[in-house]
Amino acid sequence: MKYLIYILTIYLLAPTHLASAQGITRLSLPEVVQMAKGQSIAARQASTTKETKYWEWRTFQSNYKPQLVLNGNLPAFTRSFTEVVQPDGTIQFQPVRYNNSSLNLSLSQSVMQTGGQIYATTQLQRFDDFARKNTLYNSTPFAVGYEQPIFRFNPLKWDKKIEPLKYDESRQVYIESLEKIAVKSTEYFFNLLLAQVNLQIAETNLANTQTIVKIANEKYEIGKTTRNEILQLQLESLKAQKAIATAKRDLEIATLNLKAYIGLQNDDKLELIIPADILVIPVSNQIALQEAFDNRSDAISFRRQILEADRAVAKAIGDNGLNMTLTASVGFSNRGLTIPELYQKPQSQESVQLQLDIPILDWGRSKSRTKTAEAQKKLTEHTVEQAKQTFRQEIYTQVTLFEMLRNQLSLTAQADSIASEKYQIAQDRYVLGNLSITDLSIAFQEKDQAKRDHINALQDYWKTHYELRYLTLYDFEKNKKIQPED
Q1: Where in the cell is it found (predicted)?
Q2: What is the pTM of this model?
């Protein structure tokens, strides 16, 4: 009867995790992930990077829209001495004091297909000679022109191909950043969960060990146990006390790490809920690979890198050969003593200019630049092909690992249940005198290890789940693509 009372005492002394309504925050894994995505520093960094890329995209778009610019010199006053060549060839320095102000309003539009630019302009200039008290005006009331590079590299055409890919890539990078946050927050979640479980195990073990010590002392008094067993149990009690101190330290560190990462500011104690269910969802290698190539920024990056290599070759060829720039303009101009005179019978003006740049002797520099760009293009193609192979292998590995860990999780859960039952039986047998202290200690260690193995298996499973979401940007549970959060 006395031994039965001791056995019941073991269950009564085992600590339970009770929480009051105040001072404790209970969180599940999905809640921790959502908090990290919404308020963590990493999430704010990802959002800021996304915003930066958006405005870079807007800047690119503005390059293909009309640009209206007003520029000028107001005022442009000069007071100095300037050299003047005399009729006999000598030089004298004469004082000058004048204002030469100007205003120019121009409207320009780039032509993406040709790389040229069409523009319209109006200009007004005023010259004041203060020494002679004379004022003159010069004006171009209206003029239109066109500037066209010939046989030259056209950056507008290539940017039109590459910049949209860069923007799409940045949008996918943002989604990937959030999924990376989910993976990282899962690590912090299970680090804290394991610390909580270790503390619970240590507290339970201490209570059980102290109770068994009392039973052993009773047995020792009646000669049914040895002094060695008493000492062994006392040693186990000291180990349990040390384990509690270590577990409390680890718990404090893990709590601080989790709170800091997910941006939780309160001082409440955290109590994490062990994930009870696993996702019984089919994950196909083919679907995972297809979604990865459709959604991941890496897949967009592959195309962008090839286009950038092609652009480098085109630029090397365009800059190394015959380069010409044709500029033509037509309009009106006039001069006068007053502004109204400028717009009375203005004179026509025309301008045509062809600028040439022909390399004659460069000691093979032009050819070397072109060959370098072509070699770099080949290297980029090989690098991208290797990256694609690694990309595919990573997806296949992750899908296989996910399926394997799901099966392993079921096994560790069974092992945890069996080890707990085995320990209870061993404890009862020891109380009844049918088991040695060595066998009890082995059952004791197996129980603790099985519990930790199950938590570690849960961590591996859920971390792999979120890593699979990150690698594919696809929600297999809902069967839909993971869309950007605006």
Answers
A1: Cell outer membrane
A2: 0.81
